[in-house]
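R.M. (postdoc): so does anyone remember the format we settled on? I'll just put the C-alpha cells first.
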C-alpha cells in the first residue's frame, strides 16, 4: 500500500494511500509515509480563497477491507496540517465490524502552498494528460512511528518499521508494513478536478509537469 507523502509525501501531497488484505501469507506493500481523525475545520477558515477547497475530510476508495481517510486543516492562509488514518473492516467492501485502526497518532505532515501554477501538464491515473492550474506545495513530515490497534490485531512489531497482523472473521488475515515518518521534506502539488482531490508528484526538476500519485473523494 502506498500513500500522497498522509498528501505530498505521506498524507496529502506525495502522501501515500492504499490498502490490502489477503489469506495466509498475504501482505501489503510498505508505505513511506495522509489522516487520522482530526478536529473539524474552524467555522471561519484562515485559508485563502484559492486553497480553502482543500480543507476537510477526504477518503480513498475502499481497497480490500481497508479505507484510508485524510483530514486537511488550514492553520494559516497558505499552511495546512494533515492527518490520516487507516481503517480495516471485516468485509472486503469495508462493511462489517471495524477490526483495526492505524495512524501516526499526531499530525502527519505540514503542507505549505506557493502561488498557483497555471497550465501545468498533469498525467491522470488513466494515462490521459490534461492541462490544468495546480497548487504546488512543500510537505514536511512529522517524526513518528505508525501504530495500529483493534480487536483484529494479532501481533505487532515496531523497530523503524511497523509490522502488524490483522485477522478477519472469515479466517483470512493480512500482514501490513508501515515505515515511521522521518521528518523528510517532499514536493508536489494538488489539483481539485471533477470533485476529486488529486495529489501530484513532479516529473522533472524544475517542472511544470506532474503525475497523479493519489486520488481522494469526499
Amino acid at each position: 500500500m502506498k500513500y500522497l507523502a498522509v498528501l505530498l509525501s505521506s498524507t496529502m501531497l506525495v502522501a501515500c494511500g492504499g490498502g490490502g488484505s489477503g489469506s495466509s501469507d498475504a501482505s501489503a506493500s510498505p508505505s513511506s509515509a495522509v489522516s487520522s481523525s482530526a478536529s473539524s475545520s474552524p467555522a471561519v477558515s484562515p485559508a485563502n480563497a484559492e486553497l480553502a477547497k482543500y480543507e476537510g475530510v477526504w477518503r480513498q476508495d475502499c481497497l480490500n477491507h481497508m479505507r484510508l481517510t485524510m483530514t486537511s486543516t488550514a492553520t494559516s492562509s497558505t499552511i495546512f496540517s494533515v492527518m490520516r488514518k487507516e481503517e480495516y473492516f471485516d468485509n472486503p467492501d469495508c462493511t462489517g465490524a471495524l477490526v483495526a485502526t492505524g495512524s501516526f497518532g499526531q499530525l502527519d505532515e505540514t503542507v505549505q502552498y506557493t502561488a498557483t501554477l497555471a497550465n501545468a501538464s498533469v498525467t491522470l491515473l488513466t494515462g490521459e494528460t490534461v492541462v490544468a492550474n495546480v497548487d504546488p506545495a512543500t510537505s514536511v513530515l512529522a517524526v513518528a512511528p505508525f501504530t495500529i490497534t483493534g480487536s483484529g490485531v494479532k501481533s505487532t512489531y515496531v523497530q523503524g518499521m511497523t509490522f502488524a497482523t490483522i485477522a478477519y472473521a472469515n479466517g483470512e488475515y493480512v500482514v501490513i508494513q508501515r515505515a515511521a515518518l522521518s521528518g523528510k521534506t517532499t514536493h508536489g502539488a494538488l489539483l481539485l478536478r471533477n470533485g476529486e482531490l488529486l495529489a501530484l508528484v513532479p516529473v522533472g526538476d524544475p517542472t511544470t509537469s506532474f503525475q497523479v500519485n493519489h486520488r481522494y473523494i469526499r
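R.M.: ...and that's the designed sequence above, right after the C-alpha cells. Also worth knowing: Residues 1-12, 14-41 have pLDDT under 50 and may be disordered. The two ends are 20 Å apart (CA to CA).
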